[in-house]
Design goal:
The complex is a heterotrimer, with two copies of chain A and one copy of chain B. By secondary structure, chain A is mostly helical. In chain A, 52% of the residues lie in helices and 4% in strands. Chain A has a two-stranded antiparallel sheet with strand order 1-2. A two-stranded antiparallel ribbon of chain A has the order 3-4. In chain A, strands 5-6 form a two-stranded antiparallel ribbon. In chain A, 48% of the residues are buried. Chain B has eight helices and no strands. The longest helix of chain B is centred in the last third of the chain and has 26 residues, at 117-142. The chains are: A mainly alpha, B mainly alpha. Chains in contact: A-B, A-C, B-C. Chains A and C meet through helix 21 and helix 23 of A and helix 21 and helix 23 of C. The structure holds calcium ion (2 copies). One calcium ion binds next to loops of chain C.
């Protein structure tokens, strides 16, 4: 038995070159890819697992019940109906189809960009609308890109109910990997557009050296992660295709990442302010407010790990020994469920010590967030009372502006899913500002009432 | 590469030894006069005994930490720090011989000593050389972009134990 | 010459054993110690050097001019007259004698505890007052300790002008080292008392393992750093003798470190609140306020470096190779003036990258501090206006309480000298709370005015 064991290991070890059979640019079904790469596939399908951590994990509890103050903060928006803790990738498509945000409010096809395997759907739609070439063209060829972008734009504008019929899988191998080489590649048009405008901005991004390098070059071609990014950068950009703040631009509902001035909270706010954009008018206070959505990439970008070259995959897809080889763990989840592999290679402390460190960071964030939530709630209440008492919309303009600023900041940290871990001090700074603006709003209202 | 290669040669290459010696001595002599070179145990470069490195007290810290490190029983300094193709080996020894002697003599190097990017590349090639079997999957995958894999990004303590 | 050079290095490497001549428990003059340890002495005397960094360094500029808002924050207290950037140890005694806080306001002898070499002065005073033994007794003997504490208590209560005549040196070798072994030892009674009550509290201190160990023991003897602390802990406690928050307790002006409930900002506040202690009544607003003073040890205690066992000396007295021996750099100063030895030993980045990381942290702190300073200033102003407008002291009680809380937090970070570096997220959290309380105070006043 022992001897056989060793023989197996040797055989495993010999398989250094990928033997990729039966998959190409149109292979969506992960089971087919899994025939070539069973170990990665085994991990991939385990994202159905449910396990909770203190501030994360994969139990899709209702966040609006866990902290009812958020119902008022989202009043008038779909998020006040149904907003859950997110869970594993396996659920992304069904969770989206089933959320009451979709079943009770009309949504655009743009939603699908991050909840499905859509490379093929986008390309097919592009081809149908007259883009060059066929599905056999490599995605990164000029024809492939034309198909992708054309289809993406058309599907964004479709109603969700129709668009969702065009897809059938959550994110699959094809969305992250080149089928001919298994190299990582960016397939999501939203990110391709977003990172291009970010590169063209002048926000320093020391954690993305290839962008800094491109900026110093002749800029003849726009920045293209598939051509320019290093492998280590790709290990984060693959995730930044979806784990980012976004909005739907204009009537065409074009999915857009607001990075035109940079990745920092204030720069995104400036972009929205300049575009006079609002997500909705607050139902209780009448303020023109913004919704923040999972800015993991943006917050990570401000942290010490990003700056030290530590990628999303380093923590969320750590290497794992399977027999005699090491593979990337495709069971993407909270690293706190896998501290030994996620953290301990770099941090030489016990598992309990590492968890304690994370707890200290997350508790501090949660503390400040609690204060911010109170402050924004009180501001909403006093604006509503003032309105009822007859204070004019004109007079309430400034307090409402302050609510917009405060709520944007609070939600930026709340909607980010690491409870501040990805950039602890930056998260605390943002919350400090949220509190400042919300409380200033309250004072402003109190002064109006005194008039 | 097969598993059989994971035990690297620990002796000097058999062929061309004299030429190698000349190269290495030449490098070191650029940094020191021949006598000084000998006195400072410059010939250390020609040996694979880790003690040779510590002849130079400046290498004491790395020697001590290597002894406590996880590879103490498996790899010596040169297993990691010198390329294992023949020419590379002696060109590197020449280059190091020059820089170490110069640094030691003039005391003009950056402290703490930091590994040069080119030296780190050599180290990582050696990680892969020994651990091919373990890492073949993702190494092959990386080579698509012609990049080398940064083992030390995660295993910075492999050679010398934790930095702190 | 080259050859000689190598010979010298080999000789240096051999000379590692200490040969201590002519110094004992009463040797204050550092020059005499310097005969035995010329390299350490060379560094020690270089603390006269003046070099500024962005947020630190050793240029004793007037902080009240650099940011005039602080004159109002300290209104009515000695700190509103003269408050400078601190500088090297060489100046500690003369700076204290010359500050207008001393020349214009009476101060107690307690001030000298941290600004002079006073082991001998304390002991002599103790002996004069009847303590057992002589100066020849080892400091750590029962007699030595009795002398020390007795003299300390007496000198605390003396007027500064008289007490200062008893000392003649800034901190010297004897304050940190045992003359017979050169081992570190704690000589300051304020810290011996403070760490004892901290150990007796239940605040978790994972960064001080010997305290945690003592707590698990039988507690027969009180915690004593000179007996219990590890060498690595001593490398921080030596500094924590002085770089801490303090107050003068009661009429005897007994120097006291307020660690009875723990080292965190809130725990210290609770201690003062429970003792109904205030440093002064604010001259503009009438609030009963606290002054925070250089809580470096306290803030460091909340940071990741402390938690990772990185001591003050690791950064502020890094090892330095002198020929073949390594010595501790006794030129204590900002580590940003010595990044290679201070930081690069552990952080394998370029000097400019390390400085950039510090700048990001310090800039975020400075940003929030700016907001906090504004908020506290505005609160002071509106309380004063309300008072003038006839709002009663009774009604102003709550806003004044809020000022006390806000100002304590703001000053805790401002008075700490690393601009947040010692614990970046904790500093931001504290400032977030400062802003919260100050703005709540403003709202409270606005509501009072509306009545
Ligand atoms: Ca989750
Ligand atoms: Ca200073």
């Amino acid at each position: 038995a022992l001897q056989q064991n060793i023989a197996t290991r040797k055989r495993e070890a010999a398989a250094t070159v990928f033997q990729i059979v039966g998959i190409d640019e149109s292979t969506e079904d992960p089971a087919l890819w899994g025939k070539n790469f069973p170990k990665q596939h085994d991990g991939y399908i385990r994202t159905v697992d449910i396990e909770r951590t203190r501030h994360g994990g994969s139990e899709a509890y209702q966040k609006l019940d866990a902290d009812v103050r958020w119902r008022d903060i989202f009043a008038g928006y779909a998020f006040s109906i149904d907003y859950r803790e997110e869970r594993g990738h396996a659920y992304m498509l069904s969770d989206q189809r089933e959320t009451e945000r979709v079943t009770q409010r009309p949504q655009p096809g743009a939603c699908l960009h991050c909840h499905s395997s859509n490379v093929v759907a986008f390309r097919q739609k592009g081809i149908d609308l007259g883009a060059r070439g066929t599905l056999k063209d490599p995605l990164l060829s000029a024809a492939g890109q034309e198909q992708l972008h054309k289809g993406f734009e058309a599907i964004c504008a479709m109603p969700y109910s129709e668009a969702t019929k065009l897809v059938s899988h959550p994110v699959t191998c094809l969305d992250c990997h080149d089928p001919s080489s298994m190299a990582l590649r960016i397939s999501k048009p939203g990110f391709l557009n977003g990172i291009r405008v970010l590169a063209a901005s002048d926000d320093p991004v020391p954690h993305l050296p290839s962008v800094e390098r491109w900026r110093k070059g002749d800029r003849a071609k726009p920045y293209d992660p598939n051509a320019d990014a290093s492998r280590q950068e790709m290990r984060s950009m693959t995730c930044a295709q979806c784990h980012v703040e976004y909005y739907f631009k204009g009537d065409q509902k074009l999915l857009t990442y607001p990075w035109h001035r940079g990745l920092k909270m204030e720069q995104i706010e400036k972009y929205y302010d300049a575009a006079e954009y609002k997500d909705w008018t607050h139902a209780i206070s009448g303020a023109p407010v913004l919704k923040a959505q999972h800015p993991e990439f943006e917050l990570w970008s401000q942290g010490i790990h990003a700056r030290s070259g530590v990628s999303c995959a380093d923590c969320h897809m750590p290497y794992k020994r399977e027999g005699a080889v090491k593979i990337s763990d495709h069971h993407i989840r909270s690293p706190l469920l896998n501290v030994a592999r996620s953290c301990q290679v770099c941090h030489n402390y016990t598992e309990s010590e590492i968890k304690a460190r994370v707890a200290v960071i997350q508790d501090r964030t949660a503390d400040l967030m609690d204060r911010g939530t109170d402050a924004v709630n009180q501001l909403i209440r006093v604006i509503a009372e003032a309105k009822k008492a007859g204070v004019s919309d004109d007079d309430l303009k400034q307090p409402r502006e302050l609510q917009r600023k405060a709520q944007w900041r609070l939600d930026f940290v709340a909607a980010e899913n690491s409870m501040g871990f990805h950039a602890p001090q930056e998260a605390a700074r943002i919350l400090g500002e949220a509190i400042d603006y919300a409380r200033q709003g309250e004072t402003a209202v109190a002064k109006l009432r005194a008039k | 590469m097969g598993v059989s290669e994971s035990k690297p040669p620990r002796r000097l290459g058999r062929i061309g030894l004299p030429a190698a010696v000349i190269c290495a001595l030449f490098g070191a002599c650029l940094g020191l006069g021949a006598f000084t070179f000998d006195y400072a145990e410059g010939t250390s470069y020609l040996s694979n005994d880790p003690k040779a490195c510590v002849n130079c007290h400046i290498m004491r810290e790395q020697y001590d930490s290597w002894q406590k490190g996880p590879h103490h029983a498996n790899a010596t300094c040169n297993d990691c720090h010198v390329p294992h193709d023949f020419m590379g080996k002696y060109l590197t020894k020449m280059d190091h011989g020059y820089r170490h002697s110069k640094g030691f003599t003039f005391q003009d190097f950056h402290e703490p000593i930091q590994i040069k990017p080119s030296s780190l590349k050599i180290v990582e090639d050696n990680c892969i050389r020994c651990h091919t079997s373990m890492v073949s999957d993702f190494v092959a995958h990386a080579q698509v972009k012609g990049e080398h894999v940064n083992c030390v990004h995660c295993h910075s303590s492999a050679g010398h134990g934790p930095r702190r």
